[in-house]
Specification:
Two copies of one chain form a homodimer. Chain A is mainly alpha-helical. Helix content of chain A is 69%, strand content 1%. Chain A has helices spanning 11-25, 30-39, 58-69, 78-99, 110-114, 116-134, 141-162, 174-184, 186-199, 206-230, 233-236, 242-245, 251-259, 262-270, 276-288, 291-313, 318-329, and strands at 103-104, 107-108. Chain A has a two-stranded antiparallel sheet with strand order 1-2. In chain A, α1 (11-25) packs across α4, α13 packs across α15 and α13 (251-259) packs across α16.
């Protein structure tokens, strides 16, 4: 696969996807269309066209590759590809409001650019357009619908984690983390894969691909967590150690604490302090306690599980395999 | 129809609807379920059960009555009834954030009770649950999907109206108002009626019922506007003249200005002032210029148009007719 972008879709898919996405958004009220174009990375805040950063379009790639993997033309899964990309944009718009994140892909978050009310409504509009893509496709729509529920459930769980302690009664377990990530991140990957094969004419494989996508999502989220602590700020667009500073319940930290050694004990004392030295010290302790390594190993295990489904049911899906690998080897 | 509530559903429908709504919401994360229960009027902010105010459940009533009108049992349209009520709750939750309305049905708005982030996510959850009701029903899902798009388009138009002048170049025309109301208010009534007959086994009537519901929505919104100026605050739960004070582009005022007489000229001078005397004076001028009367007449015309569809295609739908009438005769 000739990737324009690490983990991204090839130029061939971009030629299919981009016009379909733009056509979907074009039905909106002019104000909604302008804000949606900003959210999709097509325009600046003042409406001027931007080129070259429509994001990774990973979820559409999964949908299109899944259709091809069952012998159908990529086009057959285009409505699903458009739908999952629109849902992804919806979720980013709303998550940034919820998390008060001011930056997204090195630019203002949608709510920073246009205000909370407009950003909320633009998110709703993107979701409505997504649903309309598959409204008359009962072989695919239930997977999109299930992903929407997974998305809100995962987001609810993630928000509830914030109020729970790092350790002791009520602590967040690794299993709970995996369940949250499977929903919040995996649901949409799962819908892309399942709807992709269903629209490609192999609905009997859709439930398997759904499970594959959820596993992939857990791996993807763990890699995100690793990058959220140790990723290059210039590449990720987030400050170094940002997830540690905000005390987010991420897998490397949970795994470090669960290791129970000396570094884990020290780590539990230093968590919560937000000065630069403490945060840097915490990051070192997470590594010493084996949190980074364990996170990496867990991500690999989930990817292996996802690849196992492909091996069993779609052994010739080489491009899809390559995409799965690229998700855990990415640097942003 | 034995109404518990003006414009509301009979006890018979409540027995069908309420358990189905509660079952739908029960799948949510406990935090989401708690907030959804508040939004639906089932619980106080601290989670204690409340009785007797699940709202008017007007949209579900339209779905259930529409199925019965084509000779099917009401139960056949239950997924649509649940879906439209959930979408309605979603839209109220998000609209209150957008409009910064602090009160809803004499209680705190959802965002006042739980914060913007939680209210936004609860709205998303209600929408996801709504979509799941009809995800595998391709005869009904496209109408729900179309209503979601109408809803956001209408809300976008309504927000854009705020920035436009009352008169002169760029003024909001009565036709634009009707189009906004047909989307924002009519879309969901239209989906209820169309999905109701489709699930009741008469999909060939669904497009007609869609048009019927949009007309009904315009009438409903005009009556809302009338109540927003002259409604009894104890009944509507809003302060007297509230829509005039907030300079909302409502039909009585637009119609008064369009009349072009002496009162209209005076009105255009006094609009924008928010002191008590000016607002009271503006309300009087809207009446003098015939705005209230013209709004009423326009609402009646849209209801007649809606009833015309019933006369032609479902002449025996007496309960549905009665419900349509009750929408424009309501006092809250």
């Amino acid at each position: 696969m000739n990737l324009n972008h690490p983990g991204g879709v090839s130029a061939r898919y971009r030629r299919l996807l981009d016009p379909a996405l733009r056509e979907a958004v074009s039905v909106l009220h002019p104000d909604g269309a302008r804000m949606a174009a900003f959210a999709m990375g097509w325009a600046d805040v003042d409406g001027r066209a931007r080129f070259g950063d429509g994001g990774k379009a990973l979820r559409p790639a999964i949908a299109l590759l899944s259709a091809e993997a069952v012998g159908a033309p990529a086009e057959s899964a285009l409505p699903a590809a458009v739908a999952v990309e629109l849902v992804h944009a919806f979720s980013l718009a709303h998550d940034d409001i919820i998390d008060r994140d001011e930056l997204r892909r090195h630019r203002d978050a949608l709510w920073k650019a246009y205000g909370v009310g407009h950003a909320l409504l633009t998110g709703d509009a993107l979701l409505a357009l997504a649903v309309s893509q598959l409204a008359d496709r009962p072989e695919a729509m239930p997977y999109l619908s299930a992903a929407l529920i997974e998305l809100v459930q995962g987001q609810s769980a993630d928000m509830a984690f914030e109020d729970r302690p790092w350790q002791g009664p009520g602590e967040v377990t690794l299993d709970e983390y995996a369940e949250m990530a499977a929903g919040k991140t995996g649901g949409l990957l799962a819908a892309a894969a399942a709807a992709g094969v269903a629209l490609g004419g192999a609905p009997e494989l859709a439930d398997r691909m759904w499970g594959m996508g959820r596993d992939l999502g857990v791996a993807f989220q763990i890699v995100d967590d690793i990058l959220g602590i140790w990723g290059d700020p210039l590449v990720t667009g987030k400050p170094v150690y940002s997830d540690l500073r905000s005390e987010k319940k991420t897998l490397p930290v949970l795994a470090a604490l669960a290791s129970g050694g000396q570094a884990a004990h020290e780590l539990s004392d230093v968590l919560g302090a937000t000065d630069e030295d403490s945060v840097r010290h915490a990051a070192r302790l997470v590594e010493e306690a084996g949190g980074r390594e364990r996170a990496r190993a867990l991500a690999d295990r989930y990817v292996s599980s996802a690849l196992g489904v492909l091996d069993e049911f779609l052994p010739d899906a080489h491009e899809l395999r390559a995409l799965c690998h690229s998700l855990v080897d990415r640097v942003n």
